[in-house]
Specification:
Keywords: Dioxygenase, Metal-binding, Oxidoreductase. With about 150 residues, the chain is α/β, with parallel strands linked by helices. It has two domains: about 70 residues, 2,3-Dihydroxybiphenyl 1,2-Dioxygenase, domain 1 (Roll), CATH 3.10.180; about 50 residues, 2,3-Dihydroxybiphenyl 1,2-Dioxygenase, domain 1 (Roll), CATH 3.10.180.10. The chain is built from three helices and eight strands. The strands form two sheets. The protein has a four-stranded mixed sheet, with helices on both faces.
Length: about 150
């Protein structure tokens, strides 16, 4: 019996919601909504009493999976490892297919976000690069080449 009906979204907790939202919007995602969540529902789901979050939901241009960015208003966020490498346990990356990898990497560099490694090519079908985005979020950018 399959339990999953569809893939809905990935959630990332951030400190600077506006800056991280601006990065992903400039990359090509669209803001679907922005709201605050608090009360019994949030406290029950996340297990943090008296919590309050501000959430921005972003969607991809094709209408597929979404990206939820959340900033805890209370309690304060706990810092993660902004320099985490791919072998560190936890969320490894958020991945997007792009039309022009070089242009996307150059744009990111112009915004101050550099490559984690380099641009690699997989079996003549894909070019891919990891960019370390705002707050250390690793963003995988991939372009079909075949």
């Amino acid at each position: 019996m399959a339990h999953v009906r569809r893939f809905d979204h990935i959630g990332i907790t951030v400190a600077d919601l506006d800056a991280v939202t601006a990065f992903f919007v400039a990359l090509g995602l669209e803001v679907e909504g922005r709201t605050f969540v608090e009360g019994e529902f949030l406290e029950t789901v996340c297990g943090i009493p008296d919590s309050r979050t501000e959430i921005v939901m972003l969607k991809s241009p094709d209408g597929g999976a979404r990206l939820e960015l959340a900033r805890f208003v209370r309690p304060d966020s706990v810092p993660g490892s902004p320099a985490a490498m791919a072998n560190e346990l936890g969320l490894r990356n958020v991945s997007f297919e792009v039309n022009d990898l070089r242009a996307a990497v150059d744009w990111a560099a112009g915004e101050g976000y550099g490559l984690v490694g380099g641009i690699g090519e997989y079996e003549g079908a894909w070019r891919m690069a990891y960019v370390r985005g705002p707050e250390g979020i690793v963003v995988s950018l991939a372009e079909r080449v075949g």
